[in-house]
Amino acid sequence: VHGEYSRIADMLLRSLCLLCLCVPFTFATTSTVSKNCVDVVQRAASFTDGTYTIYPDGVNAVTTYCLYDSSTRMAWTLIESFSLANKASFGPLYTDAAVSGAFTSGFRLSMANMRALRFISTHVLATCNLFSDKSKDFLRFSLRDWDPLTFVTSGATGVCQLVDAVNIRGYPENDLYVQFWQPTGQHLHTDSYWGSCSGNNRPWQPTAVNGEDDFGNYETTNSAFSCTATSSSTTNWWFGAVVPSSSFPRNC
What pLDDT is recorded for position 148? Predict the structure, then answer.
């Protein structure tokens, strides 16, 4: 009898393993609306970068731009975009200064919506021209390391912060500390001329303009940097996260 029970148990276990290998397991968002662009990408039969309606707080609709980067499997929700010509209208990210204009000229979500998105995001991305050229001029960092909505500096003193990846004018670096500024009246930015940390020179420094601001503020600019190439060039800030696989085979 013992032998027969063992044989039946073994057959059941093998059947369960085959079921695990063959049946896809689907992970759906618990909300009935898309709270960010990760939700949008998950729900889309086929996704194209562009304008979408999301509900960061689960109730109120917001129109923004969604971007999917297949190289990192991350979906990005635009929280701000402004042209170089409109730089004066965009101060620190820690201020509540919503702008409902076009992505190509001036746009920023309210602080309430940015905080809601920050709560369901893992990373921050800064790009130029809606990331139309993914080969240069971007930076990415983890919200576990620091939060741009609460980061404040004093006067001319910058603070070194960890970034996952940064590329300025085609010079890439990964997993390093970069100096950032966000004092009163100035948008969050780095300085590719002065912004090294611990005395380490970076490959983009020799070609930088003295005092060159990157990804915001723009008191001093460099036409070789995509965000400041022309008056219509845009700077974009995003919150994002990896898009979970919709299904996968389980292995016993």
Answer: 98
Beta-bridge partners for 198? none
Cα(195)–Cα(153) distance, integer angstroms:
14
Is the distance from CB of 142 to CB of 122 less than 8 angstroms? Answer: yes
Please name which of 212, 218, 250 lies closest in space to residue 234, comparing C-alpha atoms. 218
**163 contacts 138 by C-beta, under 8 angstroms:** no
Residue type at 171? Y
Interacting residues of 22 by C-beta distance below 8 A, sequence separation 6+: 249
Distance CA 190, CA 160 (A): 10
- A 10 A CB-CB count for 132 gives 10
User: Is residue 8 pLDDT above 60, yes or no?
Assistant: no
- Using one digit for the tens of pLDDT, what is the confidence trace for 203-234? 898 899 999 999 999 999 999 999 999 999 99
Give the sign of the dihedral formed by CA 204, CA 209, CA 213, CA 214. Answer: negative
In sequence order, the 6+-apart residues with CB closer than 8 A to the CB of 19 are: none
Q: What is the pTM of this model?
A: 0.85
| Residue 88 phi, psi dihedral angles, 5° rounding | -65, -20
CA–centroid distance for 70 within its chain: 13
pLDDT top residue among 50 and 31: 50
